[in-house]
Design goal:
The chain has 97 residues and is α+β, with helices and mostly antiparallel strands. It has one domain: YggU-like (Conserved Hypothetical Protein Mth637, Chain: A). Helix content is 19%, strand content 36%. It contains two helices and six strands. The model has no long low-confidence stretch (mean pLDDT 93). It comes from Photobacterium lutimaris.
Amino acid sequence: MSQQAVYLDGDDLILRLYIQPKASRDQMVGLHGDEIKVAITAPPVDGKANAHLTKYLSKQFKVAKGQIDIEKGELGRHKQVRITAPKVVPEPIKALL
């Protein structure tokens, strides 16, 4: 498996993320080792952080929430997310491709 933070799988974009819940604002912080650090405002309880992360990523990549799939790390800070056919790739992500 690739150890890059971001890579393409056909038309899909795979992101390896390190999540920081309960942050002051939602933002992509930058690289954290071989993952992208994403700060989100939601607390890590009852799946709220995952739902919030999905919503945040859907806005960033201009896709429906259903096109974002948390493939690994549902219950942890380290996640692998698949974004199906993103319409827009934000600059910090584009720089890593």
